[in-house]
Amino acid sequence: MPAIQTNYPAEMAAAYEGMIANTEPNNLISRQVEGAAIGFGKVVKQGTASNGVAAATAAADVVRGITVRDQSVDANSPNLVPVNESALILQRGVIWVTAGESVVAGDPVYMVVGTAQAGRFGKTPTNNLAIPRAIFDSAGGVGALVKVRIG
Questions:
Q1: What is the pLDDT of residues 26-65, one digit of tens each?
Q2: Rg of the Cα atoms in the chain
Q3: Alpha helix positions (H), the chain
Q4: How far apart are CA 136 and CA 96, in angstroms?
Q5: Distance (Å, rounded) from C-alpha 44 to C-alpha 76?
Q6: How far, in Å, CA of 76 to CA of 98, rounded?
Q7: Predicted structure pTM score
């Protein structure tokens, strides 16, 4: 039988997109994914059904929360929550996301819209989607994993 894995990292990754960052109290809800599969650590908006969510894509969307990494998703698409499956949504707490621009702890949080960094997180309000009650809890550059605190 051939080897399935032949190289191993020297250490485990510190975090992944959509992981809850610490053990302090948080508020999580579950909602059914509509429209298209959604990745972890992504902003979601209200779907058409009362128990549904869809990926946020516009500056005018109403934010429901950020998708949480969940080990119970289909192993064939381990980084996405498929359509009609239940997504875990963080509404309060600290979560790892990917920065779309350089940020520092304390900056306000926006989801980047309409650029090459669309769907990532930044601090610039112009034409981007505001994440209510959220600040960056760590610093990082473009493409870095950073913590976002939603209060």
A1: 999 999 999 999 999 999 999 999 999 999 999 999 999 9
A2: 16
A3: none
A4: 10
A5: 22
A6: 23
A7: 0.91
